[in-house]
Amino acid sequence: MDAVMKKHVLIPLCAIVACALLLAGCANQSSNQSEPQYADEAFIASLAKGYEARDALVNQSPNAEKSVEYYEKIVDAELSQVEQYQTAQFQDSKLQENAIAYINALKDQRAAAGLYETDKDKCTQDWQKAYDKRTELLRLFFDDYGLTVSGPHQDSLNDLVSHGKKVTRENDERAAVESLAASIVPEFTEQYSTYTGKATVTNNTGYDFDTISFKVELFDESNVKVETTGMYASHWLNGETIVLDCYTSVQEPPATVKVVADYYQVAESN
Fold first, then answer.
1. If DSSP codes are grouped into helix, strand and coil, which group holds residue 140?
2. Domain residues for 248?
3. Does the predicted TM-score (pTM) go above 0.85?
4. How far is CA 77 from CA 55, 140, 157, in A?
């Protein structure tokens, strides 16, 4: 009788263990299915593959006759590898943002290529703008995400990364100067029947300037521009406060004033 009872007890225990194992397996499978598949590493790998494909086409036909088809072909060699990541999920949100920006830069180059035979000036302008953005992003992928390419393509990547650094530096300088210009508020006083403006300004851009100039646009009470004049400075060091003068021919004080960056030359670092 004990043997019979043991048999009866053993069967339910086996069933319980089997069910537990089955549920655990289902739980693991469900957990694996719910884990997001991030595209971070795959994008960088595809980016390298697309870059090499594009660079190979350029190197294969350095003297090829340039045409819409030629430019579209070299862009498509790269775009075909990375376009799939336009809607992919990334773990690094900043990488995702820059990946989408890179894809859009390629699309902008392809759109510019379509203008090659009908509007070369706009084609060149749009292509260069997208090229600058592309190289700036390649610099970021290279420095921050370990983008690498095979030996034959390394020199060209180095050149583009170098250009991207230049673009980033120039964009940072321009943004700093534009911010400085927006902070300038000249005060106008009458001198010999015309009005002269003065503004006390601190160079807080982080740059030393060999020379810098601003356009000063004067508007009357009807918001009509009545004159454009300027302010200038030379050898202006970062952190230095100076007085900028603005000479006009207007005989009434301007109702509003707009100061915009005109020209500047950043001093070379020693």
1. helix
2. 185-266
3. no
4. 9, 21, 16
